[in-house]
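So, read this over?
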Amino acid sequence: MAPRRLGFWQRFAVVLVKPVLTVWTRRTWRGMEHLRRDGGIIIVPNHISHADPLVSAHFIYDAGRWPQFLGKASVFRVPVIGWILHRCRQIPVERGSVEAVKSLDKLVAALDEGGAVVIYPEGTTTRQPELWPMKGKTGAARLALATGAPVIPVAMIGPERMFDPRTARIGLRPRTPVTVVAGPPVDLSRWAGATPTRTILEEMTDTIMLRIRDLVGEIRGGTPPPLWQRPARTPEAAE
């Protein structure tokens, strides 16, 4: 990536974070050619650890793109931190409010400007006991339908050794092995121009998540299980 395409705070973030990750991880990167160098793309990684945004950002940066992650809008209102996030071109998202529509507009604008937008379709770190992907939320599908931007699946293993969400254990061993693989764009052509009904969005989301799951299976080995779904809440649990 040409330095002239990055602002001061973006370069500062790279200088601050990349050397740490270079020492902390031993990286296997594959499929970078699928992150085209120009034009808007939607990158959809599996989410196995609170450390994996750092790893996926490193991968995306090494592929020649600047990653634009979604973040809770409240974080962007924190003095200094929010100011830096804005200047690093990260994207505030409102959740559970009428402002969510405006958040979608911001994502559309970022893609129109040629951004590489990173969305975790699971919405949180997977709750599947063995860290396989689980059923996704419809945000990435909705954005793909609104923009026609290609959806690039990304699978990774290894960040759970840096921070395991099941035990909250932090692993600081240098050269922790991590593998990140990007696949070709998910084929969503059958839904091009469709009305974004819940059924359509859920079908698209399942297609995206199954592609991510299969990529995870390729790098982990073995047969992937069905997409994990949270157990339904019982009336007693809801009280």
User: Anything to note?
Assistant: The beta strands are 25-30, 41-45, 67-72, 91-93, 116-118, 151-157, 163-164, 169-170, 176-182.
